[in-house]
Design brief:
37% helix; single chain; Ribosomal Protein S5, domain 2; Rossmann fold; 22 strands; 18% strand; 632 residues; alpha+beta
């Protein structure tokens, strides 16, 4: 062995070792997926070579017959999966196999529960790929060479899945990757070619490259296995190019499991061929569960771009907008060059048309799903906040997306604790004289439900939407109206509900307000450094006071959100509104000692802060004040 052919031993990243252990225990009953995953990787490698070779034909090295070959050796108890795709160099082997170069890995492991069924689902979301080999093998040997490199740049990787792996530089004349699985004692079933063929037909019939195996004795004319009796065992045609009439639900589901690397069937799918100025085919899937990295800044989009059935690239926001990043599948265009670059994509009228058309059809699918309340509830739980992003990002479809939003609500006989209320539902239930869609934002559903701002709305039977996700603050800053009805925060500005429901005696109210002005003055003098002003309100029926933001100011909830993520927030003073009928306000009005007024006024303000879901600046001081006042 030359000096360049040295062999080194490495340790897996801790995360890889953890994943191997979890995978073997959680996916034990579904061991057959190892073949699906390894064939999928081989197919991807062939796709990548075909794309790179579109601008550099020498990468084919005289062999453009891209395929996957599977070989069984019963005596040695091995299965070998070989492809002549792009292959890997030494650094790529280390990066792709020795480490998990994925964002959100730590969060993924934190979600694991120890329950094998639940963890199997999470592991499926994360994707196991190459590591699935250890479901059936106690040793795995991989040999590879990247296309375009010379034979002395071959690499051999080997591991028993025990936390270590070896890496060795070898001579390898063939490009591509060859993986040999040394099967465990309990995996003997996979040495039978009929078993492997069944798995291939189930999971990989649609792979657009031939999957070849040696013909079995029963399939040869003389009943004997022959060295040259090699046959293709899959259809080797791109599934999305086939007529829908030829495809079963099982065909669609199995293709989804390949392209989505998922273990569960999708929730819905769309398969359409669009003709006109631009021709393209789309096969898009909606997963049942949100990808584990859905909210990571660098989460990968799941739709692949093909041009005339040739894989071009894993897409970014060029095929579907960012808020639809959870969709999976393929889009195949007839109107782009094979050597298309990302820069060309961004400027291409064809790509803009494809993106617009695909988005339109995905939204139509959601609208159809919304007719089934239980199905849409399942969808909303997984992807609802992404649609809220769509209102912010997709101006052209803003009204349409707004119609797909769902909220919890309060104050009305048909209110819901769950997000089932659409804006159309709300508008249809508006009371006579009501001209606005009322909402409140809070840091939790409970905080929204128990907000003092709701009191007058409950009394009048006016429905209020409860917005309690972080994104909701940005949502309402972009969604100003729906169906011609303006949206109005019940915690901003002065409240005018005149004309809705039963009117109160305005003269009696004015007299009550006049009597309460002196106590408002007292409280204002104490809190002048903390609030813009103190004013009398009739929005409260049970609480003594509440905080209100001016119409053009950011809400107290938004201020809290910005500060929680380390961003500067405008230091805006709120308005304190007081309920003139509340005994606490009456009591403050009767105090003559300035110190006592200060204690009660500060407690009143801090109670209002707590009601907003925030903490007083001096929690200990608040507790001391409450204890002193209770004791006194």
């Amino acid at each position: 062995m030359s000096e360049n052919h040295h062999k080194e031993t490495y340790r897996f990243e801790t995360e890889v070792t953890q994943l191997l252990d979890l995978m073997i225990h959680s996916l034990y009953s579904n061991k057959e997926i190892f073949l699906r995953e390894l064939i999928s990787n081989a197919s991807d490698a062939a796709d990548k070579l075909r794309f790179e070779a579109s601008t550099d034909d020498s990468l084919y090295e005289g062999d453009s017959d891209l395929h996957v070959y599977i070989e069984v050796n019963k005596e040695a108890r091995t299965i070998t999966i070989r492809d002549n795709g792009i292959g890997m160099n030494r650094d790529e082997v280390i990066n792709n196999i020795g480490t998990i170069a994925r964002s959100g890995t730590r969060q993924f492991f934190e979600q694991l529960t120890g329950d094998s069924k639940n963890d199997a689902h999470l592991i499926g979301q994360f994707g196991v790929g190459f590591y699935s080999a250890f479901l059936v093998a106690d040793k795995v040997t991989l040999e590879t060479r990247r296309a375009g490199l010379t034979a002395e740049h071959g690499v051999r990787w080997e591991s028993a899945g025990d936390g270590n792996y070896s890496l060795e530089t070898i001579e390898r004349s063939a490009r591509g990757t060859e993986i040999t699985l040394h099967l465990r004692e309990d995996a003997g079933e996979f040495l039978e070619t009929y078993r492997l063929r069944g798995i291939i037909h189930k999971y990989a019939d649609h792979i657009p490259f031939p999957i070849r195996m040696k013909a079995s004795a029963e399939e040869t004319e003389d009943g004997k296995e022959a060295e040259d009796a090699i046959e293709t065992v899959n259809q080797a045609s791109a599934l999305w190019t086939r007529p829908k009439s030829e495809l079963s639900d099982e065909d669609y589901i199995n293709f989804y499991k390949h392209v989505g690397h998922d273990y569960e069937p999708p929730m819905r799918w769309i398969h359409q061929r669009l003709e006109g100025k631009y021709e393209y085919t789309l096969l898009l899937y909606l997963p049942k569960h949100a990808p584990f990295d859905l909210w990571h800044a660098d989460s990968k989009h799941g739709v692949k771009l093909y041009v005339r059935r040739v894989f071009i690239m894993d897409t970014n926001e060029d095929l579907l907008p960012k808020y639809l990043r959870f969709m999976r599948g393929v889009i195949d265009s007839n109107d782009l060059p094979l050597n298309v670059s990302r820069e060309i994509l961004q400027k291409s009228p064809a790509m803009e048309a494809i993106k617009k058309g695909a988005t339109k059809r995905v939204l139509a699918m959601f609208e159809e799903m919304a007719k089934d309340a239980s199905l849409y509830k399942e969808f909303w739980q997984q992807f609802g906040n992404c649609l809220k992003e769509g209102v912010i990002e997709d101006f052209a479809n803003k009204e349409r997306i707004a119609g797909l939003l769902r909220f919890a609500s309060a104050g009305h006989a048909q209110s819901s604790d769950e997000p089932t209320v659409s804006l159309k539902d709300y508008v249809g239930r508006m009371l006579e004289g009501q001209k606005k869609i009322y909402y409140i934002t809070a840091e939790s559903l409970a905080a929204a439900q128990h907000s003092p701002h709701l009191e007058i709305f409950r009394k009048k039977g006016i429905e209020v939407l409860l917005l309690h996700d972080r994104i909701d603050e940005w949502l309402v800053s972009h969604l100003h109206e729906f169906d011609g009805k303006p949206l109005q925060s019940i915690a901003k500005g002065e409240l005018d509900l005149s004309g809705i429901g039963e009117e109160e005696d305005s003269e009696a109210r004015a007299e009550q307000d006049k009597k309460a002005e002196p106590v408002a003055d007292k409280i204002r003098a104490v809190l002048q450094d903390k609030v813009k002003t103190v004013r009398i309100t009739h929005r409260l029926t049970e609480s003594p006071a509440c905080l209100v933001s001016d119409e053009m100011d950011i809400s107290t909830n938004m201020e809290r959100i910005l500060k929680s993520v380390g961003q500067d927030a405008p230091n805006v003073k709120p308005v304190l509104e007081i309920n003139p009928e509340h005994p606490l306000i009456t009591r403050i009005g009767g105090l003559t000692d300035d110190q006592a007024v200060a204690e009660w006024a500060n407690m009143l303000f801090e109670q209002a802060v707590l009601a907003e879901g925030a903490l007083p600046e001096d929690p200990a001081g608040f507790v001391r004040r409450v204890n002193a006042l209770l004791a006194g």
